[in-house]
Amino acid sequence: MSLISKLPQVGTTIFTTMSRMAQEENAINLAQGFPGFGSDPVLLELVAKYTREGFNQYAPMSGVSELKQALAIKTQLTQGYYPDPESEVTIVSGATEALFAAFTAIVHPGDEVIVLEPAYDSYVPAITLNGGVPVFVPLQSPDFSVDWELVGSKITSKTRAIVVNSPHNPSGYVWTIEDVNQLASLVSETGLFVISDEVYEHILFDGRTHISLGSNAILQERTFVCGSFGKTFHVTGWKIGYCIAPKVLSTEFRKVHQYLTFSTVTPLQYALAEYLEDAEKYLELPAFYQKKRDLFLKGLALTPLQFKPSQGSFFQLATYGHLSKKSDVLIAEQMTRQLKVACIPVSVFYSNGQDHQVLRFCFAKKEEELEEALHRIQKVASLF
Ligand SMILES: Cc1ncc(COP(=O)(O)O)c(C=O)c1O
Predict the structure, then answer these.
(1) How far is C-alpha 243 from the geometric centre of its chain's CA atoms?
(2) Domains by residue range for the chain, with CATH
(3) 91-108: pLDDT as tens digits
(4) pTM of the full structure
(5) Would you tell me which of 38, 229, 243, 372 could form a disulfide with 98, CB atoms 3.0–4.6 Å apart?
(6) Which among 173, 231, 260 is the best mutation to test ligand 1's pocket, defined by most ligand atoms within 8 Å of the CB?
């Protein structure tokens, strides 16, 4: 059959491959980014309540008002601005949908979109399926900060948008106020649109705070802020997220959303709306995850791997280039098969697969599981 693929480069993702390998090898899975612990019984009970009470038919296309309002209140509390719930907040089926709908709303064939690498894997297919052209800009070694001069040098008359992600997957880099201001001046000079992936907005360490791009007056006008309740409340399987954008952008965004999924699971929306009334549920997350990150770093420090502490997200990178030049894909595979701990090789986050001998570990796991994984990683020298 002569089927011409629209995504010829895309095969099975490394996340699927490594999770399958972890299962086959009975390895601890620190590869895929999902929590290895249960979610709050209070939230689960709310879902049961709303399904029992009959909230089981289609929700309004842009989301139920209660959840849009709760999210606007959360945004006021954490970011100091109040998006209009009815015209600027849309509830979607996961941040993945928010990202796809945002790209589809603004990218026309031939438009260039700046992608900072290493990058989460859903951006590039969403750009190319819309006929756009990704323009890659590497983040700087060793901390994965943004080289703003380099970004500026890549802007052409065809540049339509930039996609950014803080806290960053895979590096854990968290944007500073200088980063936000640099992007704001770039946007006011060039009129770019911004797609801001903020799914790890509540996971930050060492007293850092998350600066949503929506909180900057210049950026607010041109940015789609994409978030994920799945990541925030340890329920990644629910696939429920949101997009906050000014009315003109939200109108176009919703045109796409209504034909992608139309609406998102009704009882989950009501449950999350009620759950969000207690701000502690998200304000306590930095402390909750800091314990896990610190435990992970303590164990990692006893290995020959090198690392800089993650600033945010639930990922920690570690390098072994000083010990071996073996490929990161090979080391990740050997670690899974021989040490029984699965991780992700960071080369897969680059379009050209560049390999800096870096591995990504997800530490959103139970403490005893992390301790056992660290015990196994102590033998990492045997792989080099
Ligand atoms: C940076 C980043 N963006 C978006 C997503 C997808 O979020 P969701 O599960 O809500 O679609 C992920 C999930 O791993 C992610 O790491």
Answers:
(1) 13
(2) 14-32+284-383 (3.90.1150.10), 41-279 (3.40.640.10)
(3) 999 999 999 999 999 999
(4) 0.97
(5) 243
(6) 231
